[in-house]
Amino acid sequence: MIVKSKSKFKNYTEVTVVYDAIEQCSNCNKALAPEKLYSIIIEKNSDYYLYVADFCNSCKSVLITEYKVKRINDMNFEYEKILRTSPRTYEVEKFDENIENISPQFVKIYNQALQAETIGLDEIAGLGYRKSVEFLIKDYAIYKNPEKEEEIKNTWMKVCIEKYIDNDNIKLLAERSDWIGNDEAHYVRKQEDRDIKDMKKFIKAMVYFIGMTLITDDAASMKPKK
Ligand SMILES: [Zn+2]
Half-sphere exposure (CA, 13 Å, Cβ side) for 6? Predict the structure, then answer.
């Protein structure tokens, strides 16, 4: 919501600033009626930055939002873009027990990537998600082909997907995640219109299909009783 408000400038002048007030709490994700406590504009290397402190009534947190602003004249500033809001609380993503059982490392790495993403380390997060996919796929391949464990551990993920993943849905999702994952790891991006948001969707779908296979395998292990 665009608002026009008074702000301190360098702690001594009062100026007017137009900016986009946050409408959702970064900490609890609840809708937030902007309740500005304080704001200040500071100058850093000839650029101007606005800091707004808001209060969230739901989680009782003070949120600080940083904006890049431009100086229109002595008394007026206008925002260019929002840079970040903090704090951001990272919430652990829970996975079904059967996924935890076949690939505890996937769950661990995925959550570390999520934690990195939450605090704005998107480049690192991409690498982390890619690594989590490798563990999920390899652990699943080992579960399906236990006698090939050593070979699977030591092969490229691409080879592992082609050779050891028989479910077409999992195969396709793993392959596409690998494409995006490689972009996260390399200097030149090939899939320009895809990013970690897509990779996360693919991971969720993979987890779903693997989970369904594990349940089906469990059902198949039942023996008729007379
Ligand atoms: Zn909140």
Answer: 5
pLDDT, average across residues 43-67: 92
C-alpha 23 – ligand 1 centre gap (Å) = 11
**What is the Å distance from ligand 1's center to 31 Cα?**
8
Q: Where are the domains of the chain?
A: 2-86, 97-220
Do the bridges between strand 36-44 and strand 2-9 make them parallel or antiparallel, or are there none, so unpaired? parallel
Query: How many angstroms from the chain centroid is the CA of residue 124?
Result: 10
> How far apart, in whole angstroms, are the C-alpha atoms of residue 2 and residue 22?
9
CA of 27 to the centre of ligand 1 (A): 5
Peptide bond between residue 224 and the one before it cis (omega within 30 degrees of 0): no
Q: Lowest mean pLDDT: which of 11-25, 65-79, 97-111, 172-186?
A: 172-186
Q: For residue 115, report the distance from its CA to the centre of ligand 1, in Å.
A: 18
181 SS3 class = helix
Distance from residue 40's CA to the centre of ligand 1 (Å) = 22
> Rounded mean pLDDT of 64-70?
95
Q: Which amino acid is at 220?
A: A
For 60, left (φ over 0), alpha (ψ -120 to 50), or beta?
A: left
Predicted confidence (pLDDT) per residue in 16-43, tens digit: 999 999 998 888 888 887 678 899 999 9
**What are the tens digits of pLDDT across the range 113-150?**
999 988 878 888 989 999 999 999 999 999 999 999 99
Instruction: Name the packing angle between helices 168-185 and 122-144 (round to 10°).
Output: 150
CA of 58 to the centre of ligand 1 (A): 5
